[in-house]
Fold Pyridoxal-dependent decarboxylase.
Amino acid sequence: MTYPHAGAARPYLFNDRTVEGYRRAMAAGTERVADRIRRADRPFSGVSPERLAPEIAAIDLERPLHDHAAALDELERVYLRDAVYFHHPRYLAHLNCPVVIPALLGEAVLSAVNSSLDTWDQSAGGTLIERRLIEWTAGRIGFGPAADGVFTSGGTQSNLHALLLAREEAHAIAGAVPSRLRVITSEAGHFSVRKAANLLGLGPDAVVTVETDADRRMRPAALARELDRCRRAGLVVMAVVATAGTTDFGSIDPLPEIADLCKKSTGVGEAAGVWLHVDAAYGCGLLVSRRRRHLLDGIERADSVTVDFHKSFFQPVSSSAVLVRDGAVLRHAAHHADYLNPRRMAERGIPNQVDKSLQTTRRFDALKLWLTLRVMGPDAVGELFDEVVDRAAQAYALVAADPRFEVVAKSPLSTLVFRYLPPEGPGRKLADDANLYAREALAASGDAVVAGTTVDGRHYLKFTLLNPETTLDDVAHVLDLLAGHAQRYVDDLAPLADHPEVTHVHS
Ligand SMILES: *Cc1c(COP(=O)(O)O)cnc(C)c1O
């Protein structure tokens, strides 16, 4: 391989001599995205992986374009044209939010400066800003001055981190062997709890789920029974994971009752009580709500809390944090490396966040939240979240009154789980596949994107409302589209529905 012009790569290095090129490239990129956003009339193009894959496969990575504009033109084709746009009011699927502009500014700044928050000598002020935001979040939770925490890549990592600390505490106190450790969560808890248990080397039976009530909240009586059963079986309950905002239903487990049970239970050792982790990946937006903060009452009694700013604080991915009531427990994640954080630094009080994190090199994601708070303030963020919660309540009323649909439960947050119910007759038994089909057909059209889930073994559709720009008219329009797709499926197949083999063509 030959390099025709030695030194040709130097203009791409970001430094004092290339700031003009940086400015132009950033402006061109910003303009390109702005143009896309301005013109996007649907949340998705409906492209299939089969159609897009060859475009990406055809790019010759050995032959660079030597030009930002040309690369952006190409990017239009391989990415921007067919990306899924969460800012669009008819994106109603997952827990992805539209993002606020101060956070986008933060993203641009943090990647250009490229601080790494593992050690003070790779970030300086970034470390202190992150610490202030942890302190601020802990204050909103209602933790005392001993609280601490760290930013993470997402709720999955935050949950893993919290459960690692709980496991180490259980081990330190009770010396419990991993196979005897149990984690109790509700049947609506997030799958990352199970994943964390696996990664932590707990046994396959480590995660025990207890039943929920009709509103999909953990039943305290069921938790009490399970705590008791574990104690009698000689098992050590290492943590109870309560969810403040379940992914499907937005339900919030009864935190005060659960905290009482955890406190009262012997769990680890004799007097310690059981570690309570609150997974508020979704519900954390309530921390800044002026109208609904009370829904999180009891969260201040947790030992650890997961928050996902990239879900209900309108922050770009990634931005999450794990917080603990007693900062001293974070030592369980600390390791000393001679090259990174020698003891001398600790003795001199140099703040090295790597001592608290599972990661080493780590993005300065906190800057996005910092600029958001400094430009907009917490009330404004809470207002945006309150608006989507209001909208979800209106959407619930709309669907509940619509005979074409049945709805599962009213969410205290912003989801809606429902299904199209074909009219009485032979089409009824096609309901499952009709809903599955409607979701796929809608996504393929690109007109809107909705999610799906299973309730009691049946297929349901799900809206997750996180965009204050989504109107009730948008919701009504998407419902009509879904009903249209589902009924078309039924009309095509109902005449054949007596033949059992055709009822599951889409499963
Ligand atoms: C989304 C979610 C998670 C996982 O968070 P990520 O940021 O996607 O890793 C965990 N718990 C709950 C309740 C969630 O909704």
Notes: The chain has a mean pLDDT of 93.
